Amino acid sequence: MAAETQAQGPTETTKGRAERRRIIGIVTSNKMQKTVVVLVTRRVKDPRFHKFTTKRVSYKAHDEKNEYKIGDRVEIVETRPLSKDKRWRVARLVERPQEV
User: Fold this and answer.
1) pTM value?
2) Among 8, 73, 80, 92, who pairs with 12 as Cys (CB 3.0-4.6 Å)?
């Protein structure tokens, strides 16, 4: 009976698989084939001085159809390792900048 009453953790879905991380960032490079570089900016409060600093991280994400351009705001989602540096894929286009 103890095996029937196992509690699921807060990050697990109904299938038993953990929820994948989703991050929104801006495409900074699309020069590679099927790959875009996404810059993610976060504002973090310093624990000692209580000031906010900006942290930026670049992720390489998989873009199957080469459809995203520089400046697009996209949502990336965690996935299995696709290459040496690629562990993310582009899930959707959030916003495309206005062209002048």
Assistant:
1) 0.78
2) 8
